[in-house]
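DUF4157 domain-containing protein (Arthrobacter bambusae), 149 aa
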Amino acid sequence: MTPAQRLRQLANVVNLSTPLGLMVAVASRSTVSRGPRGLLIAAGYDWKLPHAGAFTLGNVILYRAPHGIAGSNAVLLGHEERHSTQYAYCLGVPFLALYGIAAGWSMLRSGNPASNNFFERQAGLAAGGYIDTDHHRQDGPAGKGIEAS
């Protein structure tokens, strides 16, 4: 792991977002394994919410896909890894409230929770499987998304 990845890993333990992710993984009876770059892959998540095929809590990426398939899509893994970085710079669990606000704003603006969601745009809409319905938006360099560190 790079120093930045270790820092993200440590930050997400200290800010309690990774422990929360592990608690959700255990409670949902997901199979947890080590992933790349300090991430943990939780496979077989089957609770109804959220509706996504994968979502992130700290450094834990929860997939609906079974073990062996979860984490195998490098593009989706990169998208979720960028969310892991967002948890670190939002100081952990507050990310959930900030994400909720951004999703609500996006619903008001575009009719879906992703197109105008700052966090999804930064993580890469297409990489997360989202369609950009905001045809009027002119992305500059900031709209390109952050690199997973």
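The mean pLDDT is 89. Helices lie at 3-14, 17-27, 74-89, 94-110, 118-123. ok done for today
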